[in-house]
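Morning!

This is the sequence you dropped in the shared folder:
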Amino acid sequence: MRQVGHWQQPRWAASAAGGNVSRADLVHRLVQELANLVADAEARPRRLVPRLDHDVALPDQLRVVAADLLAAGASDATLARAASVATATRAAL
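The structure's back. Tokens below.
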């Protein structure tokens, strides 16, 4: 989050590594994946995370779902999956 928390809209709109999606799309995908892991850990149905009008809100969304995952008491395997997805996303930014 420290890596992207200060970004303005033009940086979010730029292409991620590989060039087929924007950085914002990539981080939103991470937020959705973490939200799915939270839902699974809580034995609740998965729901779509809304894409807000301003991409600069993505770090806040990421903070919220990361905190939710920790609060859900997720298993070590689930936390490892979350770390793996976050690391891959960071590398692609």
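Headline: The chain has a mean pLDDT of 89.

More detail when I'm at my desk.
O.
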